[in-house]
Amino acid sequence: MFILKRQDVEIGSFKHPSKEQKIPILSYQGQTFRLLSVFNAAQEEDARSLWRDLTDNRGKACVLLEEPERFSVWGKIQLERVSVSEETVAAPGVSNVFVKAGVLIIQAMYEDIADLMGDKQAKRFEGDLVAIGNQMRLPQMASEELVARLLQLDPFSASLPSWQTNHLNTIFNELHRIGKSYFGHSNFTERALEALDELSSTERDAFLSWLKQLSSGQLWQS
Known about the structure:
It is elongated, with a radius of gyration of 19 Å. It contains seven helices and seven strands, in the order ββββαβββαααααα. The longest helix has 22 residues, at about 95-115. It has a seven-stranded mixed sheet with strand order 1-5-6-4-3-2-7, with helices on one face. It is of the alpha+beta class. It has two domains: about 1-85, 2-Layer Sandwich (Phosphorylase Kinase, domain 1), CATH 3.30.200; about 95-220, no CATH class.
């Protein structure tokens, strides 16, 4: 719909109606847009591909915001009975698509362990995730209850964990480490990455391109 520069828009936030968090919003010519995805400067083509897919293929009203150090995609919303903060806020440092991919990979590994090794080993894997969450102070992974909820989470309809790039980098490092203890040297990463087939091709390609830039990314290359 629009390709805009930072000086063309106003960015603020509104409080989520049911959660203790603020949602970034963009205002342009009386229209309001909610943040969908954030890409770094090297991912310009990925950002443009997602924006084109949403606007051309899915008929969504979207903004592609170009900034010196990042690109972001915003989808049009209607703000009704919502109090908008006047303060300017920074957009999150990682795309929801990447968080969604992380959840899918964790769930795929859990299901693979349960199917191949049984419930006892699946329960052990849950404990490993809790230990990682505690040691690394990872949001939504620091207790048995939170991990159980994460493993049952629907990434396409539920609220995603508030993970940032450093959280995801840690998660992928640790998933690979503990994955080897279950699967040995078999190519378990390839099976886990098959979970990304649930994403759109644009989202999947964007995630895999981003993953390569992480220090943990080389562990997950086929």
